[in-house]
Amino acid sequence: MINIMNKKVLGCLFAVLSCATAIAFSRTDREPATDRPPNVVLILADDLGYGDLACYGAKDLKTPQIDSIVAAGMRFDRFYANCPVCSPTRASILTGRYPDLVGVPGVIRTNPSDNWGKLTRSAVLLPAVLKTKGYESAIIGKWHLGLSAPDTPLDRGFDVFRGFLGDMMDDYFTHRRHNINYMRDGNRQIDPAGHATDLFTNWAESYVKERRASDRPFFLYLAYNAPHVPLQPVEERLTRVLEREPGIDPKRARIVAQIEHLDEGVGKVVAALKETGAYQNTLVVFTSDNGGQESAGGNVGGLRGSKENVYEGGIRVPCSFTWPAKIAPRGRSARSALSMDLFPTICAIAGAEPPAEVDGESLLPTLLGQSPDESKRDLFWTRREGNDRYMGKSIWAIRRGEWKLLQNTPTAPFELYNLKEDPLERNNLASKEPAVYRELAKALRDRIRRGGAVPWQ
Questions:
Q1: pLDDT tens digit sequence for 427-450
Q2: Where is pLDDT greater, at 24 or 40?
Q3: Rounded-to-integer distance, Cα 84 and Cα 118, Å
C-alpha cells in the first residue's frame, strides 16, 4: 500500500515537474518572466529620408545596426511624420496631438520675427503620463520645443535632459546656433568637446547603464540631430564611403557618412540595453521627424517632394517597433500611421491612460498581430512658415483612404491624388473627381477651423 501511494505521489510530482518544464521550455524570448512595465527607447533621426536606410532600399549606404532593429520587430511601410519640418512633429510625438492643436504649426526659432510656434501650457506631455506608472523620463539630444523656461524639457515633465535646446546646429563640433550655446545638462549650460552624434550616443549609453541599478522603468527619448545639415561627417567615415562607392555624388557621400555614423551610435545604445539585461523587455522605436532633404543629398525612396513638402517625400518616413518580449520579428505593416500615434501606443504598452483629447491611435494591436486592419480615420498635415513662399500662411493636406488632397504652397491650387493608383503623385485628379474633391475639402475646412482656435504666438 505504501509503495502504491509512493508511486502515485511520485507520479503526481513528475507530472507537475513535467508541466513546469514544458512551460519553461515553451516560453520564447518574446515572453520573459517579468511583471515590470517595459522600458521605452524612442530614437528619432533628423531629416532621414524614406529611402535612406539599407533596409528601406538604399544601395549606397550601410546601416547594419538599424537594419537589425527593423528585422527584430515590425516595420511600417506607410508611416508618416506629422509635419514636413521639425518642431511640429516633435510636438506631436510628445503630446499625441496634431501639432497646431498644441500651438506648434511651424518651426520654433531663436528669432521671434521668424518663430512660428509656442507649445501650449495646457499640453500634457508623455513623461507626465508615464510618471503615473512609475517611469523616469529622459531626453538626450535635440529638444526644439522651446529655448527657455517654462518651455525646457525639465519644465515639461522630463526628469533628465542632456542635449540641445535649439533648432539646428551650425556646426556639429562647436554645437552653436547663431553663435549661441544651447547645449545643456539639465538647466546648466555646458560646452562639451566632440561630434554631436558621438556626444548624444555616449550620453544615451551612460544613461542606460546607470538605470541598471534602478527598479523603475525608464523612457529614453534619444533625439539625434543627424543627418540634418550642415554636412559635417567625420573625415575617416567620409573617406570610407568615397572609397567604397566610386562615382558617388560628393554631397550624397557626405550625408551617407553622417547616416552611417548615426547607425553606429544606435547600435551602441542597443548594445548597452543588451549588456544591462534590459533589451528583452524594452520597446525600441526608430523613426524620423520628417522626410529627407533632397537638396542636401537625402534619399526619399523615389517619392515626390522632400522635406518641407506635403507630398509623400516630405512626410513619409522609416519607422520600426522592436520589443523582443512581445513583438514577433520580421513583421511588416501597411497600416497608415502618424508620429502622434507613438504617444497612445507607448501609453498602452506602459499600462497608462492617455488624456482624452489625444488625436493619435494606439498601434499596439497591430504590433501584437491582433488588428492589422487599416484605420478609417482621416489624416491631416499642416505647416506654417514665414518666408517669401509662405508669407506667414499655412499649407495643408488630408488623406482619406487612398485619396489625398493637398496644397503645397499657400498660393497654389489644391491637388487631388489617388495614392493606390498614383503613389508618385503625378496625376492631379482635382478637375476629374469633383465629388471626391468637395468631400475632402469640406473635411479639411472643418479641421482648419479647429486648428485656428489655438494660439501659437
A1: 999 999 999 999 999 999 999 999
A2: 40
A3: 18
pLDDT digits (tens, 9 = 90+) for 307-325: 999 999 999 999 999 999 9
**Given 86, 261, 319, 347, the catalytic residue:** 86
- The pLDDT of residue 153: 98
Indicate if the pLDDT at residue 29 is higher than 70: no
Mean pLDDT of 274-293: 98
- Amino acid in the structure at residue 52: D
Q: In whole angstroms, what is the distance from residue 290 CA to residue 84 CA?
A: 5
φ/ψ region of 437 (left if φ > 0, alpha if ψ in -120 to 50, else beta) reads alpha
Q: Is 195 a catalytic residue?
A: no
DSSP class of residue 124?
A: P
CATH of domain 39-367: 3.40.720.10
Alpha helices in 120-249 (DSSP H): 126-131, 196-210, 235-244
- Name the strand (E) or helix (H) holding 438: helix 434-452
Q: Which residues 6+ apart lie within 8 Å of 447 measured at CB?
A: 378, 380, 396, 398
Cβ–Cβ under 8 Å, residues 192 and 169: no
| Annotated active-site residue in 19, 55, 83, 144 | 144
Interior CA angle at 344 toward 204 and 450, to 5°? 115
Burial class (CB in 10 A: 0-12, 13-18, 19+), 391: exposed
**144 an active-site residue?**
yes
Burial class (CB in 10 A: 0-12, 13-18, 19+), 383: buried
| Arithmetic mean of pLDDT, 25-45 | 69
CATH architecture of 379-452: 2-Layer Sandwich (3.30)
> What are 86's three cell numbers?
521639425
Residue 151: what are its φ and ψ, rounded to 5°? -120, 30
Which residues does 388 contact at the CB level (< 8 Å), separation at least 6? none
Q: Say yes or no to pLDDT of 16 above 50.
A: no
The total number of residues shown for the chain amounts to 457
Q: Is the pLDDT of residue 400 over 50?
A: yes
Averaged pLDDT for residues 23-47? 68
Domain ranges of the chain: 39-367, 379-452
| Span 198-240, pLDDT tens digits | 999 999 999 999 999 999 999 999 999 999 999 999 999 999 9
Q: How far out from the chain centre does Cα 135 lie? A: 20
C-alpha gyration radius of the chain:
24
